[in-house]
Amino acid sequence: MTNIPSPSVAAMASSVKGAERITIVTHTHPDGDAIGSAAGLYHYLRREGKKVSIALNDRYPESLAFLTSGLGDDILVYEDSPARTLDAIRGSDLVFCLDMNSFVRAESLEDALTGSGCRKILIDHHLHPDTGIFDIVFSETEISSTSELLYYILLSMPGIEGKAANLPARTAEALLAGMTTDTNNFANSVYPSTFRMASELLSAGVDRNAVLARLYLSYRENRFRLQGELLKDNLRITSRGVAYMIIDKALACRYDIREGETEGFVNLPLGIESVRMSLMLKEEDDKFRVSIRSKAGISANRCASLYFNGGGHELAAGGRLVKGKDIPAEAGAAEAAAYTESRTDEFFRQEENMDI
Ligand code: 5GP
Ligand code: MN
Fold it and tell me: Which one of 115, 243, 301, 335 is least enclosed by Cβ atoms within 10 Å?
């Protein structure tokens, strides 16, 4: 996927040229692709001489901090400074929404985005983008990541001349990092264009080993201790081939788990031959956050949107189980498990009926 529509590129180039203050927004619980694409675009726009802010709903994992080092007050987190974060959006004359298909995905930033009359540009690879709310839309689902889509958009921008070497070095590094995390280090959603991007970025001088060391060789020991307990005692596999693990608050507390430290766990049970879909539920005060992964032919996106108030991609999706709505207000892991088993059972019964 390297065919970026040239009218959209021209419209983006002129929007950037005409803007003074630009804000970059991405989805809640930002992952590597969210932070990688945001940081990548930030450094490009800074070099264009713009005043740029990245506005986030909440904090991001420590393992991604190398991508935002030196950004200082240009990166704003609603959870830490709500007024300044909303002011950045309200005071912008151009907003980029990255790696999110609707304003809802930015949670507390939604109203400021809806209320802002400035031009908005979407760059995203999720299913079902809310295209009507954006002025310029770059939406491509047959691609590894938003970072990859942004890479090809930036190559098309004036002055870059299609050459990775003409991107700012930190943009190149951030985009490689974002693509790497969203593909789970080249395991999922990899296309010929993905390898081409990686190859060009390496030729342009990105130190992939350094990126991999930051992403995958810098965890705290407790992540692995928790992983051990989950796989040994917590993992359940239903008769329909649904694997699920539930991390309630007590378990997360026992291992002192921080944001992002359970990233990737949900993929592990897919390695079992009989497993068709894997879910991981993580308890928060008012809900369980849900991650869903599936094997080819099973739609994680459909399951997430039908039963878990969410969505995402065909084989990787997410959502939530809301306490007091989907499950009782006082519900814990047992109720979340019962809900997960009954709804995934219903999901597979429907899928099997559709196949007949
Ligand atoms: P993860 O399980 O890694 O949090 O998310 C997997 C994919 O599903 C990501 O692309 C993410 O953006 C998307 N996703 C996660 N949670 C939600 C949600 O609540 N709603 C929607 N629409 N997408 C989600
Ligand atoms: Mn992504």
Answer: 115
